[in-house]
Amino acid sequence: MPPNKFTLIPTNPLPAPLHPPSDLATGSQNSVFVSRQALETQFTSTMMDVLGICIDTLQNPDTSSPDTSGPGYRCGFHYLYTSLTGNLGSTQPGDTAISPGFRSAVMLWNARTLTTQQAQDTVYKLGPHSYFSESSYVMHNWTARYWGGKGYEQLLAVKRAHDPGNHFWCHHCVGDNPGDATGDLVGDGAKAQDEFVEQN
């Protein structure tokens, strides 16, 4: 891993006071690919559970929430995308580098402002995979959620063969530290964040 892997300061992209990425302010959104079976059997109850989290924080604000719709709410907006390849009759090749969830899902659900634990208790139960480009900055099982266990190992072998120095790097990309859920800063990135916090 390059010692200066972060040249930008990672913060929660929601327009709120500074919330460094953590299990309480995960940055961006928790995403999950939802299969047809999960949509038919679990989606409604999961949506009600997520709504319950919102209602609870309306009554008892959570001061760790990055949601800007109100002080301490966990009622961030949700996106539901339904144009995925899991629809009946879609081509679903299995020899690609994308998440297996992308091939079997009929919906992508992006849920903002949930904590890591809330996401694990609700939306992540709908499926084992997330969409890399629209997902939480903080993710503990990112290698499996993005590429599946076997897929990640194959991609890592290619990465090590063609980029042994890990020069082409990004947070939670193939070759990143699989145990690093939060994108802990190292080297110059840590120094830059300390300076930023002192100035603000």
TrEMBL record:
InterPro entries cross-referenced by the UniProt entry: BBE
Stretches for region Disordered: 1-23
One term of GO molecular function: oxidoreductase activity
Domain Berberine/berberine-like positions: 138-173
Highest taxon of source: Eukaryota
Pfam families, A to Z: BBE
Record's protein name: Berberine/berberine-like domain-containing protein
